[in-house]
What does this fold into?
Amino acid sequence: MTAPNDIEWRVAPQKIEYPDALAEMERRNAAVQAGDARELIWLLEHPPLYTAGTSSDPAELLSQTFPVYETGRGGRHTYHGPGQRVGYVILNLKKRNADVRGFVHALEDWVIAALAEFGVAARAVEGRVGIWCDTPDGQEAKIGAIGIRIRKWVTMHGFSVNIDPDLSHFGGIVPCGISEYPVTSLAQLGIAIKLQEFDEALQKTAGAFLKAIDHG
It folds into this structure.
């Protein structure tokens, strides 16, 4: 599959261990920097695990039921697991718009646009990391996470969206350091879709995301 602008669009057919994904991201990041590889949008699932971002607080790791991996992305603790779509985005901002804040906002807007394809009115909230929506009982809840790293203006890491994960697994951490609000999923909202359907929504809305981070 090819995304707009001849970016490689890769969907992993099986679950990828986190260390393997991180090593692949680092290899591809260096190759894009050197001009030896195309940019990459990589969609995958991980087995159950927790990651600790550069701002993580050890007190927010409440359980070690699953492996915990240190990662170079921004943010705090995050859960990844089956039923969650993870998107790793390796793009060269030197040839686009070298604006970190703008890139993060564009990534948020992309996830929000993909969720809108299924009737979910998701949003970003000022001062609160992630993608948010309302549950059927009117409670605000987190449905997606954003965490990036930029090395020599080439991006790494990206986003995760809860399609139908085991939400009890989030209980082992304080997700992204925010304890006041619950975590939700499309399944909990009553929207039963396959990961492939969400991938199609991401591809459909990718053009607007790429346009937002281009010059001008």
User: Anything to note?
Assistant: The longest strand covers residues 140-151. The radius of gyration is 16 Å.
